[in-house]
Structures are given as structure tokens and as C-alpha cells.
Amino acid sequence: QVQLLESGGGLVQAGGSLRLSCAASGRTFSTARDFSAYVIGWFRQAPGKEREFITAVSGRGGVTYYVDAVKGRFTISRDNAKNMVFLQMNSLTPDDTGIYYCAARGTVGLTGQWSEYDYWGQGTQVTVSS
């Protein structure tokens, strides 16, 4: 069984920061080596909108990609020894409001296509007030 569990969401004022965490567990991620074989992406879904890709990190953390909307404000990182991925979000705006999901992809290569990811968490709510 595979589980991705997001945490760290909440209510923050515009200009504030949040740090989201994604914890991976289960047989597929039983060792750090196993976990490092997976690309991890973060997606978000705003009310009434489709789920959108925002960032991803390669298995060993050496390669990252950000969409323009979050570039320079968000930072993705991972700690494979702890089976964790983090999303540091700074300078938040109301447009960043939504449910944030982490997802794991067992194929090499970063992608923003949600259908290319094998496992998903349940999401954590981020609300940015103006």
C-alpha cells in the first residue's frame, strides 16, 4: 500500500508564508533508495478550477521545475532519508488559495501532466486572505 500525506496547509494573510510537507509511506517507498526513484510533483486546485501543476522535483532532488506563477516564490525540496518532500511558499497571494496535492511518478523525467503521476495524496487546504 502506498500513501502520500500532505500537511502544513492553513490560513495565512497575503504576503505570508507556509511550508507544506508530503510524507510518503508504504511498501513502494520502503527505503530511501526506493523513494528516490520517484519524481514528486505538487499540484493545486482552486475553487471552481481544474487541478494545475505547479512544481516538481527529480528523484535525487537535483532537478526542479516551476511554473511561472510560482517561480521565485515557491521552493520544492526533498529529504529522501525521511521519505519527505517540502514546498516552501513565500509571498503568498489570494490566487494561491486552493487544495494542494503531492503526487509521485515512477518514471524518470519531470512532467506537469497529472495523468503521468502514479500516486496522489488527499490534499491540504491553503487559504490566503487579502
Q: N-to-C terminal Cα separation, in Å?
A: 40 Å
Instruction: Estimate the mean pLDDT confidence.
Output: 95
- How helical, in percent, are the residues? under 10%
Classify the beta-strand content into a percent band: over 45%
List keywords for this structure.
130 residues; mainly beta; 7-stranded mixed beta sheet; 4-stranded antiparallel beta sheet; 1 helix; 48% strand
Description:
The protein is mainly beta and 130 residues long. 3% of the residues lie in helices and 48% in strands. It contains one helix and eleven strands. Strands 2, 4, 5, 6, 9, 10 and 11 form a seven-stranded mixed beta sheet that branches. Strands 1-3-8-7 form a four-stranded antiparallel beta sheet, with no helix packed on it. The chain is globular, with a radius of gyration of 14 Å. The chain starts with a strand and ends with a strand.
Characterize this entry briefly:
By secondary structure, the protein is mainly beta. The chain is built from 1 helix and 11 strands, in the order βββαββββββββ. The strands form 2 sheets. Strands 2, 4, 5, 6, 9, 10 and 11 form a 7-stranded mixed sheet that branches.
Write the layout of secondary structure elements.
Blueprint: E1 2-7, E2 10-13, E3 18-26, H1 32-35, E4 39-45, E5 52-57, E6 64-66, E7 74-79, E8 84-89, E9 98-105, E10 119-120, E11 124-129
Parallel strand pairs: 2-11
Antiparallel strand pairs: 1-3, 3-8, 4-5, 4-9, 5-6, 7-8, 9-10, 9-11
